[in-house]
């Protein structure tokens, strides 16, 4: 069954009525097609009205929707002949970050992605998308391979942030993130990153120091979670909605600030409602970005990328 967010309760009630009517049609000879059509039109109108005026906090909820596509979903939908590459060659394998080589619309690429998991077992296996140092060292290793074999890099960002555990800190979490960012900035191959859900702090930018940074329409990207920000400023996570507004973490705000380069439109009601349409739009946006970058001189790509991040945030203030 579909999961509805708190602000979607009126939509949930309408869809429940539609399902009930369809069940009645299947169990009897009564023709209620006209009533079903009327309710579907009403639902569509309500969806459009609701999603046309989402608050920042509501966008956070959509970005965290349990049915929203994650990194492995994007890889499966958009890449052919994908071969996973595991391990950081120093300590262990971190399943919070997945990556490998594949073909994107006929072009060989290196892909790196956060993976949160969809059920409790997979979420625990992937540590809810929160990587330890070995995850970021794996990402750096994959970037090194991409550089060596002249493969464009595609990254799918979806994490609440890097894992904050004592073990991660003991193994050099900050250094691993910094090294991954530095490697991303120095790549002489095209690099496109897409924030598909949550983009949380250094854990996100570690694989998003790209020539083109895109965001799905209802994704969020910020230095801290709204709950974390509220706990610092108001000493209570109850003010998370206020923090979300203050952080300007929506794709629309970040495009105005120059933090990202483009917004990928999602299907009505979010990417989880129509995955196929979402993947088509995402693939088209990535393809357009890569087409613009492929063929450019490596030194130019590095200089352009570095300048982009030096200028970040100056516009729109």
What does this structure look like?
- With 317 residues, this protein is of the alpha/beta class.
- It folds into 2 domains: 6-53; 60-311, 2-enoyl-CoA Hydratase, Chain A, domain 1 (Alpha-Beta Complex).
- Helix content is 50%, strand content 15%.
- It is built from 14 helices and 8 strands.
- Strands 1, 2, 3, 4, 5, 6, 7 and 8 form an 8-stranded mixed beta sheet that branches.
- The radius of gyration is 21 Å and the shape is globular.
- The chain starts with 8 loop residues before the first helix and ends in a 6-residue tail after the last helix.
The overall pLDDT average reads: 92
Whole-angstrom Rg: 21 Å
Please give the CATH class of the largest domain: Alpha Beta
Let me know the CATH homologous superfamily of the largest domain. 2-enoyl-CoA Hydratase, Chain A, domain 1
- Looking at the structure, the CATH topology of the largest domain is 2-enoyl-CoA Hydratase, Chain A, domain 1
Provide the succession of SSEs: HHHHEEEHHEHHEHEEHHHEHH
The percent range for strand residues is 15-25%
Described by strand count, sense and barrel closure, the largest sheet is: 8 strands, mixed
The total tally of domains equals 2
Looking at the overall shape, the CATH architecture of the largest domain is Alpha-Beta Complex
**Count of β-strands:** 8
Shape annotation: globular
- Structural category is alpha/beta
| Total count of helical runs of at least 4 residues | 14
Helix content: 40-55%
Please give the alpha-carbon distance between the first and last residues.
43 Å
pLDDT below 50 for ≥5 consecutive residues: which ranges? none
């Amino acid at each position: 069954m579909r999961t509805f967010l708190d602000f979607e309760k009126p939509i949930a009630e309408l869809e429940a009525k539609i399902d009930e009517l369809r069940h009645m049609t299947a169990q009897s000879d009564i023709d209620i097609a006209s009533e079903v059509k009327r309710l579907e039109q009403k639902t569509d109108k309500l969806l459009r009205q609701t999603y046309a005026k989402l608050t920042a906090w509501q966008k956070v909820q959509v970005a965290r929707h349990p049915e929203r596509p994650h990194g492995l979903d994007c890889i499966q939908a958009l890449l052919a002949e994908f071969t996973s590459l595991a391990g950081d060659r120093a300590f262990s394998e971190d399943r919070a970050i997945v990556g490998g080589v594949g073909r994107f619309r006929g072009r060989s690429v290196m892909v790196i992605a956060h993976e949160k998991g969809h059920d409790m077992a997979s979420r625990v296996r992937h540590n809810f998308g929160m990587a330890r140092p070995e995850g970021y060292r794996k990402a750096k290793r994959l970037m090194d391979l991409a550089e060596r074999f002249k493969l464009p890099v595609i990254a799918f960002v979806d994490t609440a942030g890097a894992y904050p555990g004592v073990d991660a800190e003991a193994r050099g979490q900050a250094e691993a993130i910094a090294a991954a960012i530095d490697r991303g900035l120095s790549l002489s191959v095209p690099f496109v990153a897409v924030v598909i859900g949550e983009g949380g702090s250094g854990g996100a930018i570690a694989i998003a120091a790209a020539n083109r940074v895109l965001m799905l329409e209802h994704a969020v990207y910020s230095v801290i979670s709204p709950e974390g920000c509220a706990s610092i400023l108001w000493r209570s996570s109850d003010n998370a909605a206020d923090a979300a507004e203050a952080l300007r973490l929506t794709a629309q705000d970040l495009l105005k600030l120059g933090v990202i380069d483009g917004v990928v439109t999602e299907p009505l009601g979010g990417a989880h409602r129509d995955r196929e349409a979402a993947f088509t739009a995402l693939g088209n946006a990535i393809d357009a970005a890569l087409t613009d970058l492929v063929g450019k001189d490596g030194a130019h790509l590095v200089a352009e990328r570095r300048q982009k991040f030096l200028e970040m945030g100056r516009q729109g203030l």
